[in-house]
Amino acid sequence: MRIDVVTIFPGYFDALELSLMGKARDRGLIDLHVHDLRESAHDKHRTVDDTPTGGGAGMVMKPEPWGQAIDGILADAQSAPAAEPLIIFPSPAGDVFTQAMARELATEDHLVFGCGRYEGIDQRVFDEYAERGRVRLVSIGDYVLNGGEVASIAMIEAIGRLLPGVVGNPDSLVEESHESGLLEYPSYTKPAEWRGRRVPDVLLSGNHAAIDAWRHEQSVERTRHVRPDLLGD
Ligand code: JDK
Q1: Substitution candidate for ligand 1 out of 121, 139, 144, 152 with most atoms within 8 A of CB
Q2: Distance in angstroms (rounded) separating the CA atoms of residues 102 and 8
Q3: pLDDT, tens digit only, all 233 positions of the chain
Q4: CB of 90 closer than 6 A to ligand 1?
Q5: Integer Cα distance of 112 and 37 in angstroms
Q6: I want to staple 115 with a disulfide (CB 3.0 to 4.6 A). Which of 7, 17, 124, 224 is the partner?
């Protein structure tokens, strides 16, 4: 999968070089290209923002640098034999990102993440690329971040670990695919007793049917307590 990111803070994406994502990139599963939006701003101060038309607080990102940056990425993509890119703009006003959406997005050939800052991006940028191709506004949850970078990193990490061969132990993903919208059960490792706290006996029993039943019951119990909305009652 090719991923392009447009941002005024390319340094945020250094985090994706670490561990899991570093491995995905080394194996050629993710081809990540981070673009500094300011390189598409040509005045002396490389201005990317301006005052909101109609008035209001803060600043809005100007459309011209976005147009140049995204046109460049799309032109590059057209010279390669890949499917049409999907452009994702993180936004508090977007569809909520879920594991189901991560699975959908993991089937794409080419994702482009447009990371806004300030109070967001001039609406005409979304309208332009929605008319020319596929655009999604996506929220990672009901809270307001300072920009789209952290939201993009969360989405890229969630999508990246679903690409075949990214996770070290494929069993961990097989198990997730069986998981039926419940919260995960508690996990334990050695030693069997730590500071007087015992690992539940059933997990040491070697009885795998009993272990599966206990884990399922723990998942249901935990979901009922913390996220009853997931049980649909
Ligand atoms: C992208 C900028 C900051 C956005 C409110 C401003 C007039 C009110 C600040 N899930 C999630 N949370 N936050 C984001 C996200 C925030 C972003 C950007 C994503 C780009 N910001 C921001 C909106 C407001 N809004 C315009 C109405 C304030 C994604």
Answers
A1: 144
A2: 25
A3: 999 999 999 999 999 988 667 777 777 899 999 999 999 999 999 999 999 999 999 999 999 999 999 999 999 999 987 799 999 999 999 999 999 999 999 999 999 999 999 999 999 999 999 999 999 999 999 999 999 999 999 999 999 999 987 555 455 666 676 567 999 999 999 999 999 999 999 999 999 999 999 999 999 999 999 999 999 86
A4: yes
A5: 13
A6: 7
Give the pair of three-digit tokens for residue 13.
């994406």
pTM: 0.95
Q: Which of 9, 119, 123, 143 to mutate for ligand 1's pocket (most ligand atoms within 8 Å of CB)?
A: 119
Ligand 1 atom closest to residue 90's alpha carbon, by position in its atom list = 19
What DSSP assignment string belongs to 145-193? -SSSHHHHHHHHHHHHTTSTT-SS-THHHHHHHH--SPPPPP---S-SE
